[in-house]
Amino acid sequence: MREQTLVPSFRRPPSKVVIRRVANYEQDLSTLIHESLSTFSLTVKDKTVLLKPNLVGLDPLGVMNTHSAVIAATRECFLRLGAAQVFVGDGPAMDRDTEAIIESVRLREYLGPLGNTFVDLNVDDVERIRLQTHASRLRELYLPKTALGVDLLVSMPKLKTHHWAGVTLSLKNMFGIVPGSCYGWPKNVLHWAGIDRAILDINAAARPDFAIVDGIVGMEGNGPVQGTPKGSGVLVFGNDPVAVDATCCRVMGLVPERVKYLSRAGTFLGHLQTNKIQQLGESIASVRTPFAVLPAFRTIAE
Amino acid sequence: MDLAWPLRLASDEMEAASETSFAEAICVPFLRNAQNADGGWGYHPKSESRVEPTCWALHALRGWSGETEALTRGFQYLRTAQLADGSWPSTPAEKTGCWVTSLSCWVLAQAADSSANVAAGLRWLCQDWPADTTPWRRFLAKFSSQRDVAPINNAYRGWSWTPGTSSWVEPTSFALIALEQGTPQSFPAEAAKRRELGEGLLYDRMCPGGGWNCGNPLVYGVPGEPLVVPTMCALLALRHQPSRRENVMSLDWLESAVATIQSAGSLALAKICIAAYGRDWPRNALVFQALYEKSGFLDSVQVAAWTSLALAAGSDWLDPAGAKAI
Question: Domain count of chain B?
């Protein structure tokens, strides 16, 4: 069982974020991801790892979900680093036919047989977790045993705007661990609890140890499903999901301090301020690609 | 004279026989072996028993002879899992009932010695109102800045996934199917009104071109894409009006989508639905055995059950009048 200790941000050491420029999904992602992971002191040997991509819906064009090429290359890298097992798992929120989604993104072609690799978190065995934080009115959640039981939880979102939350990155991506078999499709109890607040509670209960954001092609406007593809040409890596999301916002031309849930996450889940984030790889300015947002989120744009 | 037709008929019969034997050789043993010692089924073999997969496995095994003991144990698991208020929880540790109550009522209505369980379940369903459409909420919604984001008629009220949340297509569909079970005398007084509101909600939430997704036909003016699973659920719940324009449009959409279905779960549910409306199964659909060889159905109890239901002859599990209690 992963131990979750909430640490106020002022007591956390600085976080590290790496931005890498990537032209397309046909590039040698494995080498690039391996190099990027090597800049972090990740203890992976003999550990179990869960890669949690963002699988939202049927997506033959690869613009809505984390691209399978990124997932497969990341899995290969963690195995090369000595991980005992690397699972890939998600619990799509809008469609209970997870197999249809993973077929639409050709995950099997990239990963090989999925039987011992892929976990549908919507229908995994669950465990009741009493929430330590009370950002929302939720007091407990049933969460999948696989997500709670691995040694290393890696959030792998797509770089997207979101019509309810402003942006959906590594923190919002954790909605996908909440099981549909308990809460439905969509997981409406989280909307009723307040999306921004629920994001905080879920991440406090199962904070990702690492984040890798697929921004090679992201989505702007009416995301996370009906938006417009937006090429940013980056992968963003980091050992602090808040710092990674804040950096992604800056790449998207958005102000992280104005994204409600991120601003609060910066007080207890990780670092928001640039002076607490060690920035490696490409500079934000060199990859900055402003994303269009819906009028309701005009205020989060720079 | 078309000399090809006898060959086509023979080929259809061979295909049907081969699919039935696939269900018998693969799906039924899989389900039999996946049953837990407590009589229930988990979502996967060796996982904890849960109400939903147990319901689907029971529907599936009812279609085959020689499964009496498995059925008896499964029904007993469901009766034991019922909460004191008549509802069923999604997972055994949970003390609050939810959407799976409809599934339990549906399958237990076809079992002996379960009428009291079903009646209590249906009572709970009729008292379980969604929270988004209370008069107070509807009043507040008039002033919400989000009121035009996903325009829906909130005079209709269906069922939610979990208590205290909004109506959605699938739980509403399952509740409507559950309310078809039993005898009119056993229905709670509110049943007729709930049915009327629930059906109204389903038609209100249909995607503009037919078919359903989880329940957002339009978001920011953009039509939602229909999906197979909610479309199947809604069409089964509304199948007493087969000629209604919305049903025909949605069935047309489902039929056209069959050629693109790449997963056994959706394929099985589409086949069940198209057969329930008496339409022919499109010839360009993938074959279950091929999908099984590719994915092993990802070890899913539900997919094995749905496939068995799609391939087994007869559909009395859908028809309360034709259902036989064991």
Answer: 1
In 3D space, the residue among A159, A297, A142 whose CA is nearest the CA of residue B98 turns out to be: A142
Q: Is residue B21 part of a domain?
A: yes
Q: Which whole number is the average pLDDT over A29-48?
A: 96
The minimal CB distance from B222 to the residues A123, A191, A222 is found for A222
Rounded distance, CA B141 to CA A247, Å?
36
CA angle A120, A121, A122 (to 5 degrees): 90
Q: Are B76 and B114 in contact (CB under 8 A)?
A: no
Residue B325 lies in a domain: no
Residue pLDDT, tens place only, A130-169:
998 999 999 999 999 999 999 999 999 999 999 999 999 9
Average pLDDT over residues A190-219: 97
Give me the CATH number covering residue B175.
Answer: 1.50.10.20
Q: Could you tell me the domains of chain A?
A: 10-300 (3.40.50)
Tell me, rounded to whole angstroms, the distance of Cα B113 from its chain centroid: 23
Least trusted range by pLDDT, from B15-29, B66-80, B290-304: B15-29
Predicted pLDDT of residue B312: 85
B162-172 mean pLDDT:
96
Q: Find chain B residues with C-beta within 8 A of A98's C-beta.
A: 298
Residue B40's CB is within 10 A of a number of other CB atoms, namely: 24
Side chain identity, residue B145: S
Provide the residue range defining the domain that includes B64: 17-263+295-319
Nearest CA-CA partner of A210 in A278, A270, A132, A261:
A270
Within a domain: B100: yes
Substitution target from A87, A97, A126 for chain B, most B beta carbons within 10 A: A97
Contact yes or no for A104 and B91 at CB 8 A: no
Residue B74 lies in a domain: yes
Confirm or reject contact between B114 and chain A (CB < 8 A). no
**Closest CA–CA distance from residue A283 to any residue of chain B (Å):** 35
Contact (CB<8Å) A123/B43: yes
Select from A98, A99, A299 the residue whose CB has the most chain B CBs within 10 Å, as the one to mutate to test that interface. A99
